[in-house]
Amino acid sequence: MQPWLTVVMPSWNGARWIAEALGSMAAEPEAGGIECIVLDNSDGPETREIAAGFADRLALRVLHRPDLPGWQEKTNHGFALARAPHLCTLHQDDAWLPGRAATLRAAIAAAPAAALHLNASVIIGAGGQRLGLWRCPLPAGEVPRETFLARLLVQNFIAMPAPVFRRDVALALGGLDTALWYTADWDFWLRLGAAGGVRYDPEPRTAFRIHGTSLTVTGSRSLDDFAAQQRIVLDRHLGLVAEHERAALRRRAEASIAVNAALAGALNGGLSAVPRAAWQVARLGPRGAAAWLRDSRIIERVLPRLWAKLSGGL
Predict the structure, then answer these.
(1) How do the domains of the chain map onto residue ranges?
(2) Which one of 29, 129, 152, 309 is least enclosed by Cβ atoms within 10 Å?
(3) Angstrom distance (rounded) from CA 72 to CA 177
(4) In the predicted model, what is the mean pLDDT of residues 126-130?
């Protein structure tokens, strides 16, 4: 049967959580029309063996690809193999919430030409405990192109398991930029939003997990490279917004980069970047700071990580 959705799952040493991720899809009544492609380069066979156990509940392909080192390369290869007209990714440590498939299928049927469908997500901890709600600062339904691009340039506010997008558009754009180890998804969402329509569902349909071995935590220990990755995306896409908005938008985005670096440093035991980040936000003035606060989703992103840190989950 021709699937209506392909889920691409890049995995590496994912035995701890991959059963929960695949099980959240297999539990959906719409699972019969969904194919899942797991591309794994784990050190041993355990992750693939667990994934293969779902072959009786999902249209599943589990591929051992040690030649594809990064999640970006594995994801792009999954895009090329996909048979469905719409794609999404689900990382081994994230999950779907009940009812996601039916809601998503209805949304695609209502707006099949949209390049990108988004939804809110819940943030969960290592043990699956709910830590918070992660929303996008977007209007429900159809999102104006200018609003989407301007707000997303300030901060990547899209949880990784949330987006669903057209396969033809993703392939035409060349997929993920494999040179971006941290911001490849952010760059990709901006390119998709610039290429076609965006729709936003404000209800949480997916779960994004934070834990001590995630890329966000381990990769951010190199703060200079961490900030540079974000600045590459900002410089690459700032020209998509109206010229008269660029200067103010850059100031808000630079403040967000400074705050992200300060928070990453604090998470790893250093506070030296905090004063500069506070100064960057203060320089925005009341209106600029309010816009930054809206677009950065700083409270929604930080509080769950704080709870996880205090409980020993990071």
Answers:
(1) 1-99, 216-310
(2) 29
(3) 7
(4) 93
Q: Given pLDDT bands bounded at 50, 70 and 90, which one contains residue 307?
A: confident
Q: Are strands 198-209 and 164-166 parallel, antiparallel or unpaired?
A: unpaired
Could you report the per-residue pLDDT of 256-291, keeping only the tens digit for each? 999 999 988 877 666 777 888 999 999 999 999 999
Over the stretch 65-76, which tens digit does the pLDDT of each residue have? 999 999 999 999
Among the residue ranges 118-122, 210-214, 262-266, the one predicted with the least confidence is: 210-214
